[in-house]
Amino acid sequence: MPRPEDSQWAVSVAQIASRAGQSKQIDAVFPAPEGIGDDIVGVKPGADVHVNGSFDSIVDGLILTARISTHISTECTRCLKPIEKDWNCDVTLFFPYESERGDGHGNGYGNGYDERGRHGGKGGSKGGSRGGSKGGSKDEVEIIAGEEESEDTYPLLSGGAFADLEAPIRDTLAESLPLQPLCRPDCRGLCSQCGADLNEDPDHHHDAIDNRFAALAALREQLEAGGSEG
Question: Where do the segments described as Disordered lie (predicted)?
Fold first, then answer.
């Protein structure tokens, strides 16, 4: 059975999990996990994903504040041209310590995580830490308050020694992908009649012909032709 720390997305955080107020910078490239988008818009599995930011320890967990950067492949929804562009996302993620321990420094998975490694809520781990911090210092209160800014929650692995970034990378990028990607904001799209690219020929048009009276015009010509023969 593979160990969690052997994962391509594992980051060692044991050195900052022992006490609140410590930080660890992260500036690394990871392979893109599978399942980010689809054939229309997405990130190819194995593509480079750059994570640049820092882990900060608080009383009941770690906060990761970072920018996630990669390259996406898609096509314009108006003119259907292929699009290859850099994609950046700013994230704040929460990695709580194990909730069973009341000293604020428990580690591990805790309870309430789904099969993708995401937590159903933060209330369990936060409640205990806040209750114990009311009589603490001002600095400690400010450190705990920083949790409120976190957007998603993920478990720590191997007794709190590692943070696995596979699920955070996949979830963050998948949720940020554009629903209607455009090659440029003012893309004119394609001609609805012939499919011509209106970006390349802005003056392209078709003369409108009203055929509603074409049958009557033909009948009139027949009547005029018959009258002249008589």
Answer: 104-139
Q: How many CB atoms lie within 10 A of CB 74?
A: 23
Which of these, 128, 127, 93, 124, lies nearest to 111 by C-alpha position?
124
Estimate the share of the chain in helix, then strand, then coil, as percent rounded to the nearest 5. 25, 30, 50
Please give the backbone phi and psi of residue 144, each rounded to the nearest 5 degrees, phi first.
-65, -40
* Interhelix angle 138-145/123-133, nearest 10 degrees: 170
Amino acid residing at 170: R
pTM of the full structure: 0.63
Which burial class, exposed, middle or buried, applies to 2 when counting CB atoms under 10 A from its CB (0-12, 13-18, 19+)? exposed
Own/partner pairs, 221-228, CB within 8 angstroms, 24+ separation: none
Determine the 3-state secondary structure of 143 from DSSP: helix
Q: Give whole-number Cα distances, 81 to 37, 76, 98, in Å.
A: 18, 5, 49
- Residue 120 three-state SS: coil
Structural tokens at position 1: 């059975």
Domain ranges in the chain are 4-176, 188-230
